[in-house]
Design goal:
- The protein has one domain (8-438): MFS general substrate transporter like domains (Growth Hormone, Chain: A), CATH 1.20.1250.
- The protein has 15 helices and no strands.
- It has helices at residues 11-39, 44-71, 74-95, 102-131, 136-166, 168-178, 182-193, 218-225, 227-253, 259-292, 294-314, 318-342, 349-381, 386-420, 427-438.
- Helix 8 packs parallel to helix 15, helix 9 (227-253) runs antiparallel to helix 14 (386-420) and helix 14 packs across helix 15.
- The chain is globular.
- The two termini are 30 Å apart.
Length: 439
């Protein structure tokens, strides 16, 4: 079945959403090389402890966010979140001019940027799932994902080309100011949503001024009670396991360089990742989902990554590790992430804004923590080298592919039944349905 082109009433929303995620990703990728460049100054054990700290801070952040979602009017929720993060990074910028231990400041920045990375992406895609319906999402999310890739291409170019002229402090200031740009875009998009974006009939969204309400901890309860959401969480944990293994290896390989060189190397990797991601998003993402279905699309990148990891096991060379990192991340941005976000169009608003952050942030960072300590145990405890660790990672990637295939199959077969279950906050009803499909 051939996908329809962008419809006239959808174009403005697509353009604004494109620029929205472009700005978010550009700001993040200005700061990301700063964070990754710091990592080579710390041992595997130190970094594992940092990732453990990130997981616990993530738990606290998600719990507070659940309360905010329950009490803040929906029209203020998303713009308020980005304003808050912009303010926090301005505080980190100010801390560089205060008598604070620079090592502690660097580690705090590392943790906070890691949390922001997942929060800003999770909330953005929650907002997109709220903006577009189940028919539009598979057809349009690939175009929006291209904005993410272009922003992620422009972002690292700035520290790569201008780090010496601007300095690391001013890079952080620039990124903080950029995070304010999405706020008016969100307001425009909310206005469009209450118009003729979907059906062509003007309609007023009466929920914009209301709070989502409910129990602030409902996101945890919904997540635990839903096999569908638990399966998505497993998919993410397997993804983070592969990412953590490759990240630790790169961190160790780059330890021989000083910070300024590492900053540019990480920025160069980001450029390569996002150049590949944008080409894939524009040329292939929509066609893959339409032609092969969601399950095959979700499994595609894991299969490719498993092949790369098995290649590292046979030939443990630095350039192959870099290549796997580029392909893994580019494939996630252009293919896996947009496909994964389509899964959330089958759930309601409270699940998107309460249960989804539990998965995208807490589960993600919990996976980081566990896989970070697993890597440390394999290398420091058992003395395994790059090759054996890559072999283990290749096997994990194959399991990751199987989970993606199963998730896509369930969505494609039963999305209407999932959506027809009223009130996913009452997760028992969805749980009973999903148990028939997932086990």
């Amino acid at each position: 079945m051939k996908a329809s082109p962008i419809k006239a009433q959808e174009f403005k929303a697509i353009a604004l959403s494109f620029f929205f995620v472009f700005t978010l990703m550009a700001a993040y990728y200005i700061m990301r090389p700063l964070r990754d460049g710091m990592s080579s100054d710390w041992s595997d054990v130190e970094l594992s402890w940092l990732w453990t700290g990130t997981m616990f801070v993530s738990f606290l952040a998600v719990s507070i966010y659940g309360w905010v979602v329950s009490h803040v009017p929906f029209r203020l929720l998303v713009p308020g979140l980005y304003a808050f993060f912009a303010l926090t990074f301005l505080c980190f910028y100010s801390a560089n001019h205060l008598p604070i231990d620079p090592v502690l400041a660097d580690k705090a920045f590392y943790i906070w940027l890691s949390i922001f990375n997942l929060f800003h992406v999770s909330v953005f895609w929650s907002f997109m799932s709220e903006l577009f319906d189940r028919e539009q999402a598979p057809r349009l999310f690939g175009y929006i994902a291209a904005g993410s890739s272009i922003g992620a291409l422009v972002g690292p170019s700035i520290p790569l080309l201008f780090a010496n002229q601007l300095g690391t402090d001013n890079l952080m200031l620039l990124a903080s100011v950029m995070l304010l740009i999405p706020i008016p875009l969100i307001l425009f998009l909310e206005h469009i949503k209450s118009g003729n974006l979907g059906s062509g009939v003007l309609k007023q969204d009466k929920t914009r001024g209301q709070t989502i309400g409910g129990n602030p901890l409902q996101g945890f309860r919904t997540f635990i009670a839903s096999p569908y959401l638990l399966a998505i969480a497993l998919f993410i944990v397997l993804y983070t396991s592969i990412g953590s293994f490759v990240y630790f290896e790169l961190k160790n390989l780059l330890a021989v360089y000083d910070f300024s060189v590492r900053l540019k190397i990480w920025a160069g990797i980001d450029l390569a990742v996002n150049a590949l991601a944008i080409l894939t998003a524009i040329l292939a993402t929509r066609h893959l989902t339409v032609k092969f279905g969601l399950g095959v699309t979700l499994a595609m990148v894991p299969v490719i990554v498993s092949g790369g990891l098995f290649a590292i096991a046979l030939l443990p060379l630095t350039w192959i590790v870099v290549a796997v990192q580029v392909v893994r991340r580019a494939g996630n941005y252009a293919i896996t992430r947009p496909a994964r976000e389509v899964l959330f169009t089958a759930v309601d608003r409270e699940s998107r804004f309460k249960a989804k952050p539990v998965i995208d942030i807490l589960v993600y960072r919990g996976g980081d923590m566990l896989s970070g300590w697993a890597f440390t145990g394999l290398t420091h405890g058992f003395g395994l080298g790059l090759g054996p660790v890559a072999m283990i990672g290749g096997c994990i990637a194959l399991v990751w592919a199987l989970v993606g295939l199963a998730l896509g199959t369930v969505f494609s077969r039963d999305v209407d039944a999932l959506a027809s279950e009223p009130g996913i906050p009452d997760a028992s009803r969805v749980g009973r349905f999903e148990e028939k499909r997932l086990g």
